[in-house]
Specification:
four-stranded antiparallel beta sheet, 3 helices, mainly beta, six-stranded antiparallel beta sheet, globular
Length: 270
């Protein structure tokens, strides 16, 4: 996005007609991280559990909400499903104060796919950072995923204003049931799930510093993105499938192939 220019004056007070570029937003601002005050603990059961609706702290321009998920205390033999442990979360929603959806993922595995393939950061696969897969003994696990808002870390594009403490963004989460995570649940004791949330944001820059004008908002401020999921049932043979979610700009398409039992399958190499 073009950076506007401003005029400056020389030491003599005479006007200097050479334009001086405005300081870009991410240079004028600073990265900020803080706990969101969200820390929920539930023991996993055979049913889904609504973890609640939570306020996101107001601060600067919100880049993402980070979820740190741990499961501890499980005991006994266990076998995880292929999409685990991300399936420990479902119905992930980040909404505006008026209830409009900003980001929504049906399952934690959908959020994992967005993190890995969304192009938000380098080395974005959550399995390469804070991650422990469910073990056979107890089924305990750890993972960290982001609910992404910012589309480009190079300029802050997509970061949303979050400066009104009286009208906060809302986060809603649901804990999945044991069968969402395990094909064979821990035989002795089900793990206890703990979810902690953090925010990543940009500071609000000063309008100018040392005579240089700052860009005080991200480019195209209030730009949002939306992930959506659809299921297409495919029969044997060659087919042309029409995608029905159209009418908007498309950044990328992800394809997940599953068999008739809903189990994710690997496509053969071409």
């Amino acid at each position: 996005m073009p950076t506007p220019a401003t005029m400056t004056r020389g030491n003599s007070g005479a006007q200097n007609n050479a334009p001086v570029a405005t300081v870009p937003f991410i240079r004028a601002s600073a990265e900020h991280r803080e706990p969101a005050g969200i820390d929920i603990t539930r023991q996993l059961t055979t049913s889904d559990q609504d973890l609640g609706v939570f306020d996101i702290p107001a601060y600067g321009y919100l880049r993402s909400v980070v979820l740190l998920v741990t499961a501890t205390g499980g005991a006994g033999a266990a076998t995880a499903v292929a999409d685990a442990p991300f399936t420990a979360l479902k119905n992930i929603q980040l909404t505006e104060p008026n209830g409009a959806t900003i980001a929504s993922f049906n399952t934690g595995y959908d959020a994992f796919l967005a993190n890995k393939w969304g192009g938000y950061r380098r080395n974005a696969d959550p399995r390469t950072h804070v991650f422990n897969a469910p073990g056979t003994n107890g089924g305990n696990f750890t993972f960290m995923i982001r609910i992404p808002l910012e589309l480009s870390a190079r300029d802050g594009f997509g970061s949303l204003p979050n400066q009104n403490a009286a009208a906060t963004f809302k986060l809603r989460l649901t804990a999945g049931k044991l069968s969402d995570i395990y094909s064979s649940a821990p035989a002795t004791t089900a793990p206890t799930l703990r979810v902690k949330a953090f925010i990543e944001a940009w500071d609000q820059p000063e309008s100018s510093v040392a005579g240089r004008v700052n860009q005080t908002t991200p480019p195209a401020v209030n730009t949002t993105q939306f992930w959506s999921s659809q299921t297409y049932n495919i029969s044997a043979g060659q087919q042309t499938v029409r995608l029905t979610r159209v009418g908007n700009y498309i950044r990328n398409l992800l394809f997940v192939y599953r068999n008739s039992s809903g189990v994710r399958v690997q496509m053969p190499a071409l």
